[in-house]
Amino acid sequence: MMNFKKTLGVVAMASVAYAAQAEVKVGFLGGFTGPIESLTPPIFEGAKLAMEHVNTQGGLLGGESIVMPSADTGCIDASAASNGADRLINSEGAVAIVGALCSGSSIAAANNVAVPAGVLMISPASTSPSISGLADNDLFYRTAPSDSFQAVKMAELLESKGIDEIVITYVNNDYGKPFAEGLEAAFSGTVAASEAHEDGKADYRSELGSLASNGVETLVVIAYADTSGQTILRQAYESGDFTQFVGSDGMVGDSLVEAVGADVLEGMIATKPGTPEVVGQSAFETEMRAKSLDPNAVFAGQAYDAAFLIALAIEQSGTADKEGLSAALRTVASAPGEIILPGEWAKAKKLIAEGKDINYQGAAGDHEFDANGDVPGLIIEMLVEDGSFVEKGEL
Fold first, then answer.
1. pLDDT tens-digit profile of 258-307?
2. Claim to verify: residue 385 and residue 335 sit in the same structural domain
3. Which residues form a coiled coil (predicted)?
4. What CATH number corresponds to the domain at position 159?
5. Is residue 6's pLDDT more than 60?
6. Is 48 in the same domain as 182?
7. CA atoms of 11 and 189, how far apart (whole Å)
């Protein structure tokens, strides 16, 4: 009898130990290959930093670790995005997803997999205005502002620099087309031409020749740094038809400058979603620099916030289950409540356990989500100087 009791005790202790070490999975759906492959790693690192803060400060719920399996969308492949989301949710058992990054991937993954499965998604980088109208059952959110907002800010930036004539080339997808339409509508000067191009081609000289026939010297490229955007800029420079280049956020990466040439792109203007001057920004910067990571990498702060918010929502809901996470998300992301900054997981966990309200103010701002799951955010002016993109200030 005594040996039997000892056996039961060992089993019980093993069960407790197993429970304490259980894992909660939050997936990351990103463009590890394709047109933004050089931009994706720091975004992923930002999300993983949030997971690290959770795990080193008490874990989720009863001490469970949070882990982040990932899947590749290829950015522009709707099937890959859907398949990746399906694997994360149905094979890996992810209860929520950070991602996707490219807008078309997010739309495909949400419509085909996540929303039917009742799984929360928070994208740190999908900026298409089309996303605001998704029939998502309040399951899709984003921590980056819509391109409808960025397009207005880009128009204002161009006007402030005395640019009154532009031509636009945009990648023909859910990212490029709405952005171009928004810029054309907001720009008070003349848009002499706005033409779509297909991503992944080796030659855009025909498209550039059509745009150059208007005699306008400022070329706006709404595309991706690792594919069409890079090729277009190189061939546009070779043609000698344009004297000023302008890029959207998908173009903001030093890999672009290295590939095309620092001398070629010196003075190139661009815009990207930025991080406001809030307390959470400095906390995030300190943590990123401690790991030799760039806190200013495009969408890195937004990725940290997306992952941290998901963890907070799980803690708030009191269970590692997909049900009720969107309602919990709105609770932890909004006022009123005691302010929680990046890295303050232990503080948040204690307050939630005490039944107190919290209000997360993140690396990329205060995420007071509207009815569509959108945030207003802010846009930063970027300029290529001495071989790299440099932040020039808030627009």
1. 999 999 999 999 999 887 676 777 888 888 898 888 888 999 999 999 99
2. no
3. none
4. 3.40.50.2300
5. no
6. no
7. 75
Burial (Cβ within 10 Å: 0-12, 13-18, ≥19) of residue 263:
exposed
Q: Can you give the C-alpha Rg of the chain in angstroms?
A: 22
**CA-CA-CA-CA dihedral for 42, 43, 48, 51, to nearest 10:** 140
166: in domain: yes
Residues 242 and 219: beta-carbon distance below 8 Å: yes
Please check whether residues 353 and 288 belong to one and the same domain. yes
Phi, psi of 383, rounded to the nearest 5 degrees: -145, 135
Residues 298 and 345 in one domain: yes
How far lies 391's CA from each of 117, 123, 230, 273, 385, in Å? 40, 23, 20, 11, 10
DSSP-derived secondary structure for 217-263:
-EEEEES-TTTHHHHHHHHHHHHT--SEEEE-GGG--HHHHHHH-HH
Question: Full-prediction pTM beyond 0.90?
Answer: no
Assess whether 260 and 384 both reside in one domain: yes
* Domain membership flag for residue 1: no
Same structural domain for residues 141 and 237? no
Whether 162 contacts 139, CB under 8 Å: no
Bridge partners of 120, per DSSP, are 96
Q: Is the pLDDT of residue 20 over 70?
A: no
Domain membership flag for residue 17 = no
Range name among 11-20, 40-49, 101-110 with the lowest pLDDT average: 11-20
Shared domain for 72 and 105, answered yes or no, is yes
DSSP secondary structure string for all residues of 62-109: TTBEEE--EEE-TTT-HHHHHHHHHIIIIIS--SEEEE-SSHHHHHHH
Domain count of the fold of the chain:
2
Closest CA to 177 of 213, 222, 243: 222
- Find out whether 232 and 169 touch, Cβ atoms under 8 Å: yes
Residue 14 falls inside a structural domain: no
Structural domain that includes position 260: 153-275+378-394
Q: What does the alpha-carbon distance between residue 346 and residue 334 come to, in Å, rounded to a whole number?
A: 19
Write down the pLDDT at residue 276.
66
**Strand ordering across the sheet containing 358-362:** 338-340, 358-362, 365-366
